[in-house]
Structures are given as structure tokens and as C-alpha cells.
Amino acid sequence: MGEPVKGTVTSLSSIFAPEDAQKASVHVQEVISERQKEVQQLQAFLNDNTSLVNLVKKLPDQLHHDIMVPFGKAAFFPGKLIHTNEFMVLLGEGYYAERTSKQTVEILKRRGQGLESQIESLNAVIKDLKFEASFFDETATEAAEGIVEIREDFVEEAFDEDKATTSGDDDFARILSRIDELEKEELESELAEEGEEKEEADEADIEPEFRNLEIKELLDIPVSKDSHIKVPTPSGSNTPVMPVDHNILKEGLSHAPMSRDEVEVSTLVSSSSNVSSKTRVAASSSSNASSKTSVPASGPSNASSKTSVAASMSKEVSNFGSRSSNDKAFTGSIVEHTHNIENSQKGQTSAPAPTPASKPVSRFKLQRK
Amino acid sequence: MASSSSSSSRELQKELEAKANDLSKIQKDISKNHQVRKKYTIQLGENELVLKELDLLNEDANVYKLIGPVLVKQDLAEANANVKKRIEYISAELKRLDSTLQDLEEKQNSKKEAIFKLQQRIQAGKAKA
């Protein structure tokens, strides 16, 4: 609690008053209904146009039609429609043209297309407006519920998990980081697929090396099978980030120790090999895979054996480190990666819904997509 | 002292009113401008439609122009030229309206600013009093 202030907490209702958001939403609704009226009008025009097209098509079917001719406001008298294939079409602005039925239909169809495109564009506008209205509605309800917005600057160097739990990250930054992360993951899985093939090819070359090492160990040190199998775990400490890569590593590693020699070793295992020393070995190799640091021995009786185990293991690990970096070149990105994932997850859990309102535009765009 | 401050505040009030009147006048002009522009844009669209249709007509087609109550026969080329001229005129008019609208909006903004400053001065005067 004594920590310095890292961010600001503002209740959403202080930024967007619920009444204002409601008002805005109502206003947008009004605009929508206006636009819908326009669409209806255009639709009516379009219907008139199509019925007119039908009539104009039908008229020249006969030489003349018996009709009732309107006379004044209320009177009709019987008449005949002749010259049924001659039309005087109003082009607009007082210009008329004499046209045949077919030509008239063409003109009318062109007009219909114009109307349709207008309706389409209006519908698109209405769709946009509806999204806007729903956004305003959401903001209003969120503000009314008393959701708070937490803003905090993201400090990358001084990152640890405790901070992450308290940090509600900026919405936009979170989305960006998520996108980055997904892209990276995709890239890596592609690389991993490529790497998998290579790995299989490499395995044959590398395995003999392991065997030699293991045989040496077998001569003077009782090595537990477990300690070997644990090797992949530390080196694969990045597992949550890239399950695929980890699997490959594990596969590669556990394949080698599980060879014929290893089985013999496991039969020779004495109960003296204690768990704590093993875990330490694992820890050291995870912290610095390529270095050849020896592990502090817990049991003085087999201290020498353990150091050699550590050495051999670190050699193995370094092998893998170099191999994987050659094959995949992902080692650098991993660390940053884990942060990203944790950050994004934590951000989501700690600040679930309120942040969107801080970036109305981006949220809106997102929705539109 | 008190009387002078009240008189100055009255003057400010008067000025504010005058400015507000000017602003409302400008806003009226702007809305008028918008209406006229709307009319012209509609006419422009109609004329363009006519031009398109005239282009599609055959050379020997009969074209008439409605002048008052009568249809007057017109040459197709003549009608075409007339419509083109009309379109030119309307676009020029639209451009002119655009520039005047910009002018008006600038004026409106400056007036708004002036009013805002006046209001602040009045507020300050009230706070002193």
C-alpha cells in the first residue's frame, strides 16, 4: 500500500455522465429514424419505377388500348391510347426526348440503378449509426453501473507479476500487444514446423554425442534417469508461451536420454540420489543454460558426481540452446513474450470492461470491423 | 466606485448582446447558404443525369424543351451544349457558395471567441463586485 501511485482511477460516470450518453444515444436514434424514412421514400420511388417499367413494356403489345382519360379533377371519359410505341420521356430540367418503348425501359432501368445505389449507401450509413447508438447505450449502462477506468503507464523494465496484477493496462496498448503476440506466435509456430523437420534430421547426428557422455557418467556416477528427464523442463521454462516449441525440445531431449544406455543407467540408480540436488541442477540449468557453472552440492558424499552431472547436463542444454537458436532463432523473444501474455491476461482480469470507454474511437472502430 | 463598475458591467452586457445578435445573423446566413447549396447540388445531379441520357441518344432523336406550357423542339447538339453550360454555371455557383460559407464560418468563430471573452470579463467583474 506504501507503493508510489502508478495510475489513476476515474469512475466512468465522471467522464461520461449517464444522462449525456443516454441523450447522445437518443439523438443518434432520431437520426437513424430520419435516414430510415429516406430509405423508405427511395424504396417507394424504386417500386414506382419498376411498375412503370412493366407498364411501358406491356403497352406496345397492342396497337391501341381502351382507357379512361382523366378530365379535370373528378371526371373521366372513355378514350383510346394509340401510338403505343411512342413515348415522350422527361429527362429532367425540362428536357424531353421521343423514345420507343425499349429505349424508355433502358432509361428507366438506369434510373432504377441510381436509386438502388442511393439506398445501399443510406443503408450503410444506418448501419454505422446503429453501431454508434449501441456504443452510446453501452457507455450509458456502464457509467450507470459505476464502473471505473484505471489508467496506468506501462513500465517494461521494472516489470514483475505483482505489478501486473494491479495494473489495468491501457485498452489500446493491450490490444496492440495482443496482436503483436499473436503474430509472433504464428511466426514461431511456422518456424517450429520447419524446425521440427530439421530436428528430426539432426537427432541422428547428436544422439551419439549424448551417448558418449552418458556412458562416461555410467562408469563412475550413478545418475538417475529422472535428472535427465528433468533437463527439458528447465530449458523449456518458456512452455506457456510456445507449447509447440516446448514439445519439440522435450521430445528431442527425452529421446536422447531414453536410449539404450540410459535404460541401463536407470537400473543402476541408487537411492542416494536425492531430489533436492536434482531440482537444484534443474534450476541452475534453467537460469543459465549455456554456462557451465557447477551446482552447489547438497549431499557431501556424492558432491563430485553431482558437479559432473551438472556439467554434462549444462553441456547438453547448451547443445540444445545452440541448436535451437540455430534452427529457430526464438530464444531472444521468449522472455518478452511471457511478459506480454501475463500482462494481457492480468490486464483483462483486473480491468474487465471499463477501459473501452477511454478510447471510444478505437472501440467503435473495432466494433465496426 | 461601485457605480462606475456597475455602469461598465452594463456596457459590457450591451456589447455582449450586440455581439450575440451579430452571431445569430451570421448563423442564419450560414443556414441559408446551406439550403441554397443543397438546391444547387440537386440541380447539378439532375443536369448530369440529363447530360448522360442525351449522350446516349441517337443523332436523329427528337429532343424537346418544356418552356412554359409548350414543348419546343430542340436540336440535340444544342440541347447538349445548353445542359453543359448549365452544369458549368451550377458548379461555379457551388464554388462561390463554398467560399462564402468559409468566410461566414470564420466570422462566426471569431464572433464566438469575442463573446466568450466578454463573458469572462463579465464574470470577473461580478467576482470583484
UniProtKB/TrEMBL annotation, chain A:
UniProt feature, compositional bias: Low complexity: 265-298, 349-358
InterPro entries assigned to the protein according to its UniProt record, in alphabetical order: Prefoldin, Prefoldin_subunit_alpha, RNA_pol_II_subunit5-mediator
Protein name, per record: Prefoldin alpha
Protein location: Nucleus
Entry similarity comment: Belongs to the RNA polymerase II subunit 5-mediating protein family.
Biased composition (Basic and acidic residues): 247-263
Source domain of life: Eukaryota
Protein species of origin: Helianthus annuus (Common sunflower)
Positions of the UniProt region annotated as Disordered: 185-207, 226-369
One Pfam family this sequence matches: Prefoldin
GO annotation, biological process: negative regulation of intrinsic apoptotic signaling pathway; negative regulation of transcription by RNA polymerase II; protein folding; response to cold
Keywords for the protein's UniProt record, in alphabetical order: Nucleus
Biased composition (Polar residues): 299-328
GO molecular function: chromatin binding; phosphatase inhibitor activity; transcription corepressor activity
Gene Ontology CC entries for this record: nucleus
From TrEMBL, chain B:
Molecular function via GO: protein-folding chaperone binding; unfolded protein binding
TM spans (from-to): none
Pfam families in the cross-refs: Prefoldin_2
CDD domains recorded: Prefoldin_6
Keywords for this protein: Chaperone, Coiled coil
An example Gene Ontology CC term for this record: prefoldin complex
Keyword check for Chaperone: yes
Record-linked InterPro entries: PFD_beta-like, Prefoldin
Coiled coil residues, start to end: 87-121
GO biological process, alphabetically ordered: chaperone-mediated protein complex assembly; protein folding; response to cold
Protein family per UniProt: Belongs to the prefoldin subunit beta family.
Protein name, per record: Prefoldin beta
Taxon lineage: Eukaryota, Viridiplantae, Streptophyta, Embryophyta, Tracheophyta
Gene name of the encoded protein: PFD6
